[in-house]
Amino acid sequence: MKKIRVLITDDERAARNEVRRLLAGYPDFEIIGEAINADDALKMIAHQNPDLLFLDIQMPEKSGFDLLESMEQVPAVIFTTAYDQYAVKAFEVSALDYLVKPIREERFEKAITQARQRLGKADSAGQIFVKDRQQYHFIQWSSVHLIESMDNYARIFFDDKNVFLKSSLNQLEAKLSDGIFFRINRAQIINRQFIQAMATTDGRLKITLNTGTQLEVSERQSAKFRQWVAGK
Q: CA-CA distance, 178 to 212, in Å (whole number)?
């Protein structure tokens, strides 16, 4: 059985020990390390690629939210906090779960169950964390249907929402899977899994997404797109 690899990030030793003690009762979870601040956690995540992060929200210098915003890819997250006011914010960002310290065993068990369910899904990998207009979002790339260039930002459309990410379209294009995402023109990238219909007008493709959005592929990219689709 493949184990779920866990990184615990908390500036308090007692809090880290408590999570470690509780996890001891779940042999399918393997603790691969502990971090005492956001900078240490970022380095460990880059090198060890954990599946699940137990993350304290309020830490000195950089918060748990600051850590997530600095990452290009974010693992599944269970927030831990001693502050109730952060609980609402955690729900707003659609975290896997949040646990208020001191952690009750029944709440911990519920969080573990949710972690198993989430990480057992095929699309559990590949998410980012975005702060936009005082709201926080975990965004699965598999739910993104359109990305548009907006000056120095990218506007990401997912589910029935959209947010702004400080990144150029060129930067995102280099990171995204070319098996799923395709740049149809200078200003737009689409997720091919959301394509509902295609039509050709004057040699150019017009694409309709299943969201109802209609988009035009540039002449140059129309030929590339046909080749791209034919090769999939």
A: 23
Q: What is the C-alpha to C-alpha distance for residues 222 and 197, in angstroms, rounded to an integer?
A: 14
- Residues 41-53, buried b or exposed e (16+ Cβ, 10 A)? bbebbeeeebbbb
pTM, entire model: 0.82
Kindly state the tokens that stand for 131: 């702060």
Between CA 106 and CA 12 the distance in angstroms is 22
Q: What is the pLDDT of residues 211-223, one digit of tens each?
A: 999 999 998 898 8
**pLDDT tens-digit series, residues 68-125:** 999 988 999 999 988 776 666 665 666 778 898 999 999 999 999 999 998 887 555 5
Buried b (16+ CB within 10 A) or exposed e, 202-232: eebbbbebeeeeebebbeebbeebeeeeeee
